[in-house]
């Protein structure tokens, strides 16, 4: 009779331990989800702050590029530049998304580093839309 009680005790203890471990994992998961939501809100708040400044398109594009780099660094846990993140995480994006982000980032680089470069309004708007779509749909 003692063996049965002892076996029941260990069964109960096993279930209790499993329940506690499950609660810990649930708490960690919910904590991570909460931090993820807070980060997304922080990025969106910053996005709308930049958008409401009514900057010229050239400067608006530069600000969006910086914000997207920050967002991807946080999302992917990386310390690399936006270009390196895009290269190392290219399978994370559809081909169209990746091409749009690359187009916008390359245009931003030309604006930032080439003193003789003049971007067309069409290209600026296309690049801005690519960055805006990525930021809104993080």
Please give a quick description of this structure.
With 138 residues, the protein is mainly α.
Q: What is the name of the CATH topology?
A: Four Helix Bundle (Hemerythrin (Met), subunit A)
Rg estimate, integer Å = 24 Å
Q: If helices are DSSP runs of H or I spanning 4 or more residues, what is the number of helices? A: 5
Mean pLDDT: 88
Q: H/E element string?
A: HHHHH
Report the CATH architecture: Up-down Bundle
Describe this structure in words.
By secondary structure, the chain is mainly alpha-helical. It has one domain (37-136): Four Helix Bundle (Hemerythrin (Met), subunit A), CATH 1.20.120. It has five helices and no strands. It is elongated. The chain starts with a helix and ends with a helix.
Keywords for this entry:
single chain; 138 residues; mainly alpha; Four Helix Bundle (Hemerythrin (Met), subunit A); elongated
Secondary-structure topology with pairs:
Layout: H1 2-51, H2 57-76, H3 82-88, H4 95-113, H5 121-136
